Every structure is written in C-alpha cells, then in structure tokens.
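User: Can you help me understand a structure? I only have the sequence.
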Amino acid sequence: MRGTERVATAPGLTHLSLPSGERCDPGVSNPEWRLEGGNRFNDGRCDPAGRFWVGTLNPDGRDASLYRLDDERLVAIKRGLGIANGLAFSPDGRWLYHTDSPSRQVMRHAFDVGTGEIGEGEVWIDLDMHDLPGVPDGAAVDCDGHYWSALYGGARVARFDPEGRLVAQYPVPCPNPTMVAFGGEDLRTLYITTATQDMDAEARRRYPLAGSLLALEVETPGLAEPCLARR
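Assistant: Let's start by predicting it. Here is the structure, written out as tokens:
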C-alpha cells in the first residue's frame, strides 16, 4: 500500500506517507490539547463526500467534541460530549450516527452530504432498552444500513437494523472490543479490535485473546470506506 493516510494523534491531525510512516505535512492542531495534556482525538471517519470527521475523548467523561475538517481547519459540530465514538454514515448518506459512550446511547442526525451540515440529534439506540452490557464504542455500517457496534465491557458486537432495532449479537472472547471494520475482497470479513485496558494480570490470563485483532465472517458485506477528498 502506497500513498498518504490521514492520522489522528493526541496533539493533532497529520498525513503519513505509506509505507514509510514518515510525517509529510505540518498537521492540524487539536484545539483541546494543551501542553501535552487535555482531550485527545479518539474516533474518526470520512463522510460520503470525503470530508474527515473526528471526535475527542475526555478522561473524565465530559467536555469533548465532534469536529469536521474543512480546508485544513477543524470546525466544532457538536460539543458537550464525554467520549465521541461510533461515528458512521448510512449507505444513502441521509444519516450521521455517533455515540457519547458513557451515555450508552447512539444518536442519529439528519445529514446533508452536499454541505456537511447535520440536523438536530435524536436517540436512535439505547442499550438500556435492549438490556445490553458495556458501552457503545467503535462502529461500522453494512450495505443494508445495519449498524455494527463494538460493546466495550460487553464482550460482544451488536448489530442494529436501520430502525435501531437489535437484530443480532456476536460474542467476543474478551471483555473489551473497541472497533469494527469490514474488509476482505468481498467486504464480508468483520475485523474487531480489542483492548487490555483496565484488565489486571488475572483477567489477562483468563482472556488470552484480549488485545488481539479478531475476524468474523458475515453474510452481509460492509461499505467501502470513502477516500479523503483533497479540498
């Protein structure tokens, strides 16, 4: 793989040259990072028009934000979050989905692909209503518009239909799945990242696959991720 990749680091956004990994631009500063402290970047994705979106994470679960990158300038689209996560877009581009993980809810906003603007948010998925454990972490949408959410602390991936109804659960052999992404030639492989965060030595012995990259073959293919548009 050759080219450049947009990467979100704690202090800001940068492009890395692939495969060398060398930084190839001065980057865009994270407005919430000061003197090697503050809110780091967390979850990001390009929208169908190739705009880059990224959220921040506050260690205390408050005062984080969701940003859109416009002409190498970060514009705050939504504030007052704790851990911006689960960013995804519906296949038709009508909806933007995201979660503030501590709330255990996934929000849905009407989305304008042409302008990149969002409408008022509404609660689309509430884990309490489905009696699901953990918190919604990273997510991806398949070609049928189903939302796949890694439930951190819940030891599973949950799949919801376009109406926000729970349709399937997939157990994971460790407590903390963090992100899901579709890959493979036919986009029918769901890759799942996992974490060892907050696990003591006994828990790591009990769950030896914690921290591993897992793969699950699924029937419905995912969506090809949009490339970052040069603006």
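Now, to help you interpret it: The two ends are 23 Å apart (CA to CA). The chain has one helix and 21 strands. Let me know which part you'd like to focus on.
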